[in-house]
Design a protein that fits this description.
With 285 residues, the protein is of the alpha/beta class. Strands 5-4-6-7-8-9 form a 6-stranded parallel beta sheet. Strands 1-2-3 form a 3-stranded parallel beta sheet, covered by helices on one side. α6 links the parallel β7 and β8. α2 packs across α3. The longest helix has 20 residues. The two termini are 27 Å apart.
């Protein structure tokens, strides 16, 4: 099985609030071991986490070698206060606070920096996001500061303009990337930036009744069409299921994502190339 390049160990794919509550008095080691065991059983031996605010991925990194898993984590993600991101990390108001968070994560053993620069999909209304992205200057400064600290950058990013700005700023991997235009897909391919389009959190919603299936299918179709375009331009596309998101279970979620990517026409050598790039770039010096 290919590696899992976008997961969240703090979530369980069933109930986010209950999953987080398990760690309110300290990380629940049994839960972390359960998820690591699920990856091991599925033959997934590389996992890149997207971070959390309760040190769950930090413990997972320490325990992962017992399961034969190479585990990479930013420890926590970083977002601008008042914008999306509290679900997986810590906020900043000033650039000094941002620099301090980058340094703090690094001192705690982070392998890279994870930033949040946009909202998420409005699953009930296809083609829309919960909020617009950050300003061009803000995105560039977040990436530059992390790079200056010697950290690769993983960016949660949606929306055409925000994705284009993030790619132009030199991000090391683009996560989600919904609603990119042809021009932005061309930029993605030209840059050679690994893109992890996270189809499973959308496709696995079909039939569950949580959101209108028609809207879910539209979002899924839009992303698959964008992937097909990216494949035609020889872009670097990888497997990241957003494991832990609703109905995307650890271990099996990786297989779900693989199935969606194959349906979109992504060849195995392309997936392998993206994973190899992540293994090379998203690690401490």
């Amino acid at each position: 099985m290919p590696g899992e390049c976008h997961a969240h160990m703090i979530m369980d794919g069933v109930n986010y609030r209950q999953a987080v509550a398990l760690h309110k008095d300290g990380v629940c080691e049994d839960e972390v071991r359960k998820h690591l065991s699920e990856y091991q059983k599925a033959g997934v031996l590389f996992v890149r986490d997207g971070g959390d605010a309760r040190e769950v991925s930090k413990l997972a990194k320490r325990l992962a070698p017992e399961y034969g898993i190479d585990y990479r984590t930013p420890i926590f993600a970083i977002h601008k206060r008042g914008h999306y991101g509290g679900i997986v990390g810590h906020p900043f108001d000033t650039w000094k606070e941002y620099q301090d968070l980058v340094r703090r994560a690094k001192s705690e053993g982070a392998d890279f920096t994870k930033i949040m620069v946009s909202g998420i999909l409005d699953f009930a209304h296809a083609g829309t996001l919960t909020e617009e992205g950050l300003l061009r200057e803000e995105i560039r400064d977040m990436i530059d500061i992390a790079h200056d600290a010697g950290m690769a950058v993983m960016a949660h990013c949606n929306g055409d303009e925000t994705c284009a700005v993030t790619l132009e700023a030199g991000v090391d991997s683009l996560e989600h990337g919904f609603f990119m235009s042809d021009d932005t897909i061309r930029l993605l391919a030209e840059k050679g930036t690994p893109w992890f389009p996270t189809l499973a959190p959308v496709g696995n919603l079909l039939g569950c009744g949580r959101f209108p299936d028609e809207e879910v299918q539209k979002n899924l179709g839009l992303q698959m069409e964008r992937i097909e375009k990216a494949v035609s331009l020889h872009a670097c596309i990888g497997l990241g299921s957003d494991a832990g998101a609703y109905l995307v279970l650890h271990g099996t979620g990786t297989g779900d994502e693989y199935g969606y990517l194959k349906r979109a026409g992504v060849p195995d050598p392309v997936l392998k190339q993206a994973e190899q790039r992540v293994r090379q770039v998203f690690k401490r010096d």
